[in-house]
Design brief:
The complex is a heterodimer. Chain A is mostly helical. Chain A is built from six helices and no strands. In chain A, 78% of the residues lie in helices and 0% in strands. The model of chain A has no long low-confidence stretch (mean pLDDT 95). Chain B has a domain of 40 residues. Chain B is 48% helix and 0% strand. Chain B has three helices and no strands. Chain B is elongated and about 65 Å long. The N and C termini of chain B lie far apart (67 Å). The chains are: A mainly alpha, B mainly alpha. Chains A and B meet through α1, α2, α3, α4 and α6 of A and α1, α2 and α3 of B. Bound molecules: zinc ion. The site of zinc ion has 4 residues of chain B, from α3. Zinc ion binds next to α3 of chain B.
Chain lengths: 239, 71
C-alpha cells in the first residue's frame, strides 16, 4: 500500500515538475535573463571579460530547468505520498482525495509560501556571493521549523478535535502555527543584499514567477495524485 | 418537485495504514527524496558533496526559480 502510494506520488510529481518547468520557462526566464543582463552590464563596466560557460544559457533555460523542476517534483511528490500514507484515515472523515488536497495545501503553505515571505526567491546577481552559506543555512532552518510546526499543529488539531470538534480544533492549531512561525521568522536575521540599482521590475517579476511556478507544481501534484489515490482506494463495487 | 430530497452520500473514509508499515518506507525513501532535494537545490553551493560546478550550472535556473539561495 505504501509502495503504491509512493510510486503514484512520484509519478504525479514528475508530471507536475514538467508542467511547472514549462511555466517557469515561459514566465520566469525573461526575468531571470534580466538579472543576467544586469550582471553582464556590471562586469562590462568593470572591464571584465565574460567567463567561460560550463553550461550554455540555452541548455540552462530549457533542459537544465526542466531536469531541476522534475527532480524537485518527484522528490516532493514522494514526500507528499509518505505524509499522505500517515494522514489518510486519521484526520477526520475525509476521503482519500480530500486528504491529499489538505496535506498538499499544508505542505505548500509551510514549506514554500511561509519561507518565501521571509526569504523570497532571488534572481541572479541580486545576492552577495560570499553569503551563500549564511543564506542557505537560514533558508533551510526556516523551512524545517515551519514544516515541523505545521506537523505539530496537525497533531494538535487531531487531539483537540475530540473535545472541540474539527472546525474549532483546526482554527486553534492553525492560529498557534501562525503565531509561532511568525515569531521565528521575526527573530531570524533579515537578508537585505539587493544592489540599490538592481532593476525593481526584474526583482518583482522574478519573485512572482517563482511563486507562480510553485503554485503550478503543487496544484498539479495535488490534483493528479488525488486522482491516482482515488482510483487505488475505491473498492470496485462502489464505483 | 418530483424529485425526492437527495440523501447525503456517505464519504468513503480510507482505513488508516499502520505506522509500523509506513516507518521503513518513510526512513529509506525519505532519506533518498531529501537527498534529491539537496542535490537539486543546494549541492555545489554552500556545501559540496560532488566537486566541481557542473551540477550547479546545469540545474542553475531551476535553483533560482524554485527559490533556493544561489548567486
Ligand atoms: Zn545563480
Amino acid at each position: 500500500m505504501v509502495r503504491t502510494l509512493l510510486v503514484r506520488g512520484m509519478l504525479a510529481g514528475l508530471l507536475a515538475g514538467l508542467l511547472a518547468a514549462l511555466f517557469a520557462n515561459l514566465v520566469g526566464e525573461p526575468a531571470l535573463d534580466g538579472g543576467i543582463a544586469y550582471e553582464d552590464a556590471l562586469a562590462a563596466a568593470a572591464g571584465e571579460a565574460g567567463g567561460e560557460e560550463l553550461v550554455s544559457r540555452g541548455v540552462q533555460s530549457t533542459l537544465g530547468l526542466a531536469v531541476g523542476f522534475v527532480i524537485y517534483g518527484v522528490a516532493v511528490g514522494g514526500i507528499l505520498a509518505l505524509v499522505h500514507a500517515a494522514a489518510q484515515g486519521r484526520i477526520g472523515a475525509l476521503s482519500a482525495r480530500a486528504t491529499v488536497v489538505v496535506v498538499a495545501a499544508v505542505g505548500f503553505v509551510s514549506a514554500v509560501l511561509v519561507p518565501f515571505l521571509k526569504y523570497p526567491a532571488n534572481p541572479p546577481a541580486s545576492s552577495l556571493d560570499d553569503t551563500i552559506g549564511l543564506r542557505t543555512g537560514l533558508f533551510v532552518i526556516l523551512v524545517a521549523v515551519s514544516v515541523g510546526l505545521a506537523a505539530g499543529a496537525a497533531a494538535l488539531a487531531r487531539r483537540l478535535s475530540v473535545t472541540l470538534g474539527w472546525w474549532n480544533a483546526v482554527l486553534a492549531a492553525a492560529g498557534g502555527y501562525v503565531v509561532l512561525v511568525a515569531l521565528v521568522a521575526y527573530l531570524l536575521p533579515p537578508i537585505a543584499e539587493t544592489p540599490d540599482d538592481f532593476p525593481a521590475t526584474v526583482l518583482y517579476d522574478f519573485r512572482i514567477a517563482s511563486l507562480g511556478g510553485h503554485l503550478v507544481l503543487w496544484t498539479t501534484l495535488a490534483l493528479v495524485f488525488a486522482a491516482l489515490v482515488d482510483r487505488a482506494a475505491r473498492p470496485a463495487a462502489v464505483r | 418537485m418530483s424529485q425526492a430530497a437527495a440523501e447525503p452520500r456517505p464519504v468513503a473514509v480510507p482505513a488508516p495504514i499502520p505506522l509500523r508499515e509506513i516507518a521503513p518506507w518513510a526512513l529509506f525513501a525519505g532519506i533518498v527524496l531529501l537527498a534529491l532535494l539537496y542535490l537539486v537545490g543546494m549541492d555545489q553551493g554552500a556545501t559540496s558533496v560532488f566537486s566541481g560546478q557542473m551540477l550547479h550550472e546545469f540545474v542553475h535556473d531551476g535553483r533560482h526559480l524554485l527559490g533556493f539561495p544561489c548567486h
